[in-house]
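I hope you will forgive my troubling you with a question about protein structure. The matter concerns a single protein, recorded as an amino acid sequence and a row of backbone structure tokens. Please examine both parts with care and let me know of anything in them that strikes you as inconsistent. Here, with my thanks, is the record as I have it:
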Amino acid sequence: MPLNLRLNGQKKVRNKKRIRHRNNRQRHYYSGKKKRHTLKSQIVVDKKSAKIICTDFTNGKRHDFRLFKESGLHIHPDIEVLADSGYTGLNKYHAKSRVSQRSSKKKPLTRGQKEQNKQLSSQRVLNENVIGKLKRFKILSDRYRNRRKRFGLRFNLIAGLYNYELKA
């Protein structure tokens, strides 16, 4: 029996929905910037205690600020938020937020803006140190080769271990 059958003058082609569906799911995680399938995680760190307060995850294709908006994280209006340049526009959602400014070819940063970025990055160094400590577990630094559904659970367990280590 041939693969293509003719019925009333039309071709009947074998349906490959399952394969197309799998590819669409995988394409959902493809990051054009990194040129591979990635997962993105976001953490909120308390500046005083250096504890991880909140985590959220999504596919690597999604933008940082969109992840923040969709996470539904509500921050008290009196708390100051320090974020990197990926969260540009955060001050529309939270009044006491400080975001580093981006430069472009047509509009380079002034000396004052560069100084502000340096001060902000010196305050944000705690966040980067926490991320560096989490990368020791290799879930963030290496390829995640397990099931994507379990990434959130495993990352939360690692964050719990990190917070427990701070207590001891």
Summary: The chain is about 35% helix and 20% strand. Confidence is low (pLDDT under 50) at residues 1-9.
